[in-house]
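Support case: user asked for a sample of complex input and structure output to validate their parser. Sending the pair below.
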Amino acid sequence: VKNCVRMLRAERNWTQADLAEKLGVSRQTVNAIETGRFDPSLPLAFKLSKLFALPVETIFTE
Amino acid sequence: MSLCNRNLTPLQRRSMNRMVSVLMLTLVTNLSTPNPANPLLDLFPGLSRLIAHNGHTPALLVGLLSAISLLPVLLAVWVAGSYLRAEPDEFIRALVVRALLWGFAVTMAGDAIAGVFMNFYLRPLPLSIMNADLFFASTGIAFGLVQRSYR
C-alpha cells in the first residue's frame, strides 16, 4: 500500500516528531509508514485521515 | 525504543525495569541446578559450597528447585504480555513481537542442538539450564536488529 503521508506532512510544515505526537505514536512509526515499510492499522489510518481532513483512500492507494 | 534510550515512555521504562528484574531472577535460578554443567559454578567454584550437591539433595528440594527455575520464564511471558497489551504504538508492538519470536526461535534451536549433543554424549550441557538466559539475550539482540532494519 502506497501513501502520501510525507507529502501531506511537508505541506503543513510538520516534522515527523510533530505528526507522531499528534497521532500518539513514536517518530519511528511515522517514518516506517512514510517509507512504506509499515502499513498502519485501520484505527491509525482513520486518525491520519481525520488529522489531514482527507478520506483514507486519498491518503492510501494500492 | 532502544535498550539505552532516554526517550522511553513510562510504560516502556516500567516494562524494561520488570524485565531486568526477571533477568536477575534468571541468573539467580541458574544456581538451582547444582551439577557440573552449571556455568556459574564453573566460573565461581566457591559457590558450590553454598548449595546442595547431587545425590545428597532430597527429592522434594529438587522438585522445588525445578519449580523455581520456571518462575523467570513465566514472569518474562507475563511482563511481555502486559507490555504488549498496554503499548499504544502498533509499530513498536510489531517490532517487539518479531523480536520475541526470534528469541523463541533461537532458544528452541539451541535446545534442539543441545538435546542432540546431550543424547550423544550422555552428559548435561550448560545450555539446558540457560534457556531463559538465551531467550533474553537473543530477544534483546533481535530487537536491535529488527529495529535497525527499519532505519
